Amino acid sequence: MIIASNLKTNLTRIQTSAYLMDLENFLDEMHSNQEILVFPAQSSLNLHSGQVHQGAQNAYPAKNGAFTGEIGSEQLEEFGINTILIGHSERRHIFSEPQALLVEKFNYYKNLGFKIVFCIGEPLKVREEGEDVMMKYLELQYEGIDTSYENLIIAYEPVWAIGTGLTPTLKDISKIHLALKEKSSAPLLYGGSVKVDTAKDILACEGVDGVLVGSGALAVENFCSMIQFAQDI
Ligand code: 13P
């Protein structure tokens, strides 16, 4: 399974290094064969070797240039990073990233062979309009994206479940995942308020290939417990 931690704008560089070190020690001890991804804050990126794939939460679709506040592939290359998160709900909604920019990022990093975790998810208002409207909304979030890209991982993260403590029912998670799997055979992660006490059941849902966890994975021991659950399945 794929177990991913999105650290968002949390943890300093020193704290992130300690997080990764604890995680590597845990993975060594348990002989994990899970795929582990960690997305640190940009300023906490560091050279890293081990079982964990370190990824970028965001980057501009250019090697370098005049893009104030952004980093490009040259800065990622310095840290050996070839994994990136694109289309996270916080990028789409807080920073108003339009689909065209997400497609540009996707194509740029696809051409570099990056592992891309592409996020989709509906706001509550859309969900309340029923399943057909919701599935159409999710479909539009794939527009322009090559869903057959070999290094693609999709993360389904309902916007209303992120950071709220709310999650869809297990039945709904399975239902939506199975429907989404008809559109792409890429591994499909669930994200949105996954906690240490809900991860086991979510990971066991049909159609779920892993989880993308925010606040629930900020304490490394909780993230390790989730990896253990995946290993036990
Ligand atoms: P929370 O786990 O804090 O709800 O965040 C989920 C998320 O956005 C992961 O990318």
Description:
The chain has 233 residues and is α/β, with parallel strands linked by helices. The protein has one domain: TIM Barrel (Alpha-Beta Barrel), CATH 3.20.20.70. Helices cover 37% and strands 15% of the residues. The protein contains nine helices and eight strands. Helix 1 packs parallel to helix 9. The relative contact order is 0.15. The mean pLDDT is 97.
Task: Give the helices and strands, then pairings.
Elements (H helix, E strand, L loop, with lengths): L1 E5 L6 H18 L4 E5 L13 E2 L18 H6 L4 E4 L2 H5 L5 H13 L3 E6 L3 H4 L3 H10 L11 E5 L13 H12 L6 E4 L7 H5 L6 E4 L6 H13 L1
Parallel strand pairs: 1-2, 1-8, 2-3, 4-5, 5-6, 6-7, 7-8
The protein binds 1,3-dihydroxyacetonephosphate.
Low-confidence spans: none
Q: Tell me the radius of gyration.
A: 17 Å
Small molecules bound: 1,3-dihydroxyacetonephosphate
Helical residues, percent:
25-40%
Shape label? globular
Fill in the CATH topology: TIM Barrel
Number of strands: 8
Query: Number of helical runs?
Result: 9
Strand residues, percent: 15-25%
Number of domains: 1
Strand order of the largest sheet: 3-2-1-8-7-6-5-4
H/E topology pattern: EHEEHEHHEHHEHEHEH
Quote the distance from N terminus to C terminus: 9 Å
CATH hierarchy class name: Alpha Beta
The description of the largest β-sheet is: 8 strands, parallel
CATH superfamily label: Aldolase class I
Average predicted confidence as pLDDT: 97
